[in-house]
Design a protein that fits this description.
Structural class: alpha/beta
Distance between the termini: 54 Å
Shape: globular
Bound molecules: flavin mononucleotide
CATH class: Alpha Beta
Strand content: 15-25%
Number of strands: 6
Number of helices: 6
Helix content: 25-40%
Order of helices and strands: HEHEHEHEHEEH
CATH superfamily: Flavodoxin domain
CATH topology: Rossmann fold
Radius of gyration: 18 Å
Largest sheet: 6 strands, parallel
Length: 196
């Protein structure tokens, strides 16, 4: 991921993280969603686990607090239904209610925000999260997984929904797509011979 102003943003991040790094390391890894005293929060949404792996590694490496973003009403389990629902929510601008919010986001200096790309942008629940939490003055570090088509419009969504935050260069990675796994399994099942 490349963004203008990379160097200045990177030094801003290093400044923001310098103190938490020196005090945060050695702290036991944070549990699910409770605030444990770190100045770094890792908030993430994951459907199939790819983004969750990265979230937990950031938590471990930085001694950060971890918060899993979830919708109040579960998304469909079926992949095709989920694709349709994601498109509807993207096109309508709907922000699904959250199952929970971060109890006190005020003291965090940096928020690592992780999500998969859905329909070439951030899932609607990420807009919900940004609308419900004031990130003004905080460093916002995205980490994004996608199925091979890149980060799409997602950075514009972050900039638009967290106008007071300092968006710095993040991390993005191509990961396995549920769609491909489903197709492979379906092809395999077509070859399985069940007799007797
Ligand atoms: C509803 C839906 C829409 C998706 N849309 C895209 C897309 O537009 N571009 C892309 O590269 N990958 C897309 N993917 C693939 C995911 O971004 C990718 O598999 C991601 O790593 C999943 O992360 P997770 O395991 O944390 O949920 C989509 C997946 C789903 C379920």
């Amino acid at each position: 991921m490349r963004q203008p102003g990379l160097l200045s943003r990177r030094s801003a991040l290093m400044t923001a993280l310098a103190a938490p790094l020196s005090t945060g390391l050695g702290r036991p890894a944070g549990a699910a969603s409770a605030r444990r005293g770190s100045e770094i929060l890792v908030a993430y949404y994951t459907r199939t686990g790819n983004t969750g792996i990265i979230a937990r590694q950031i938590r471990r490496a930085l001694g950060a607090d971890l918060f899993e973003i979830r919708t109040a009403d579960p998304y469909p389990e079926d992949y095709e239904e989920q694709v349709a629902e994601a498109q509807r929510q993207r096109d309508s601008g709907f922000e699904p209610p959250l199952a929970a919010t971060v109890p006190d986001i005020g003291p965090y200096r940096a928020v690592f925000l992780g999500f998969p790309i859905w329909g070439m942008t951030a899932p609607a629940v990420i807009r919900s999260f940004l609308s419900r939490h004031d990130l003004s003055g905080k460093t916002l570090v995205p980490f994004i997984t996608h199925g091979g088509y890149g980060v799409g419009q997602s950075l514009d969504v972050l900039a638009g929904h967290a106008p007071g935050g300092r968006l710095v260069e993040g991390f993005s990675k191509r990961c396995d797509q549920e769609r491909e796994t489903l197709a492979e399994v379906t092809r395999w099942l077509g070859r399985v011979e069940i007799s007797g």
